[in-house]
């Protein structure tokens, strides 16, 4: 009964704090951590223990998978270099820098334990940063960089943590660490891809949204467990499975299944994510008590944690300088090669393609050239300058993963309670200080957001492509008159009118010309509308493959088609 009350009180607290945070304009994770810290010192308030295995093996795969499903693969691919730099190279540098600090400041800690704690405090949590950024209108590319970093850097940090813990028991070499890292990445990617592909294929055979969503809840663990058993990274496998699922699901899963799944996953992610932040705050008083019980000074941990917070911030700021320089170099390169790519594209399109294997190879080359030209246009359209670099540098908040990973330090680690409290101070200090000041930084540097006029024109152009695809279907006699009998002109006009891509679910059911009891007209209407929606979906996937449209326009059009398809299925049923 007590556990039930604690869970119920936790859910109610999250909802109440979420409502208040929305009114105050404060990111919810920041509010929950602050509220949790305050409640942890109130007598009589329960202090549920933040079990590290529960977070690392139970919550983290779910949250990373849910975030990866909604991440456009196109955006991730275009910025895979900067994301890798932030999520891998910066994590390594932060581990080395803070490891040196901990080794110098804590007597008798040893290099392996120092680097283990450095790995613990190295990964960032992008939840608070992206929540602030979206509310203040940060450009979508900066948000993609932060989200991509948050998806991958947990895996990098946990691999380094595992290596440092192993080094405390046996000697390791730099080449051994590099080999283990490459092995973990390769195996995790392969397992994640396999799980993602099988996931959408199997769920595509189900014809029930409830069953479909139920199966989706176990997918993160289906990727996580075998990767961990193989000595790879379970969280990276869950991320790759989510990316593959999100990319493939429009082709294999029914619209009603994806709409139902999205709603359920948003609710689950909201509760789990924010419960972790609340528990993170509630754990501060027990951590301080355990440090005092060992005869250690909690203020020593606070001072060391604040020093480590300054170190991780300085390292991130220093890393942002060459990162922005590399992205600006990419802009110059894009400006130089895009005209040549456009010339090559026009030449491939204007000359007649040969038949057979040579023709197919030519078509593949044309698609690659079109995609490369679109990537170059993307970099020219959305450059990251010094203003964006400042925001990236100040968005290095740590989160619950830092505290959970610290709890996994071996029991015989010298001064273990002190080190766990240091990790908490780093997480709390970066989350609260940078989180509450990030809005002021964004306003001060005046980062330009995405051009709304261009976004509107891009979406209108995409809808025009989909409309042309639908009109082509209705102009095909093989579709409108499959048995030689032309379709009713009034019914065709109704289908044309209803094939306009909408973004809202109105109550018009498409029966204005045939009557609700005319089964033949109903069946013909449904058949034609399905043909049109299928053509529009294929046109949307083809547009996504070319990369000429912004991912937000593609996602908006995908949502509109899903609503139309789900509405048609309800009408047909």
TrEMBL record:
Its main location: membrane. Coiled coil: none annotated. GO terms for molecular function: potassium:proton antiporter activity; sodium:proton antiporter activity. InterPro entries: Cation/H_exchanger_CPA1, Cation/H_exchanger_TM. It is a multi-pass membrane protein. This is CPA1 family monovalent cation:H+ antiporter. Residues 12-442 form the Cation/H+ exchanger transmembrane domain. It comes from the Bacteria. The chain crosses the membrane at residues 54-71, 83-103, 181-202, 209-225, 231-249, 270-289, 301-326, 388-406, 418-445. It is found in: Cell membrane. GO terms for biological process: regulation of intracellular pH; sodium ion import across plasma membrane. Pfam families: Na_H_Exchanger. GO terms for cellular component: plasma membrane. Keywords: Cell membrane, Ion transport, Membrane, Sodium, Sodium transport, Transmembrane, Transmembrane helix, Transport.
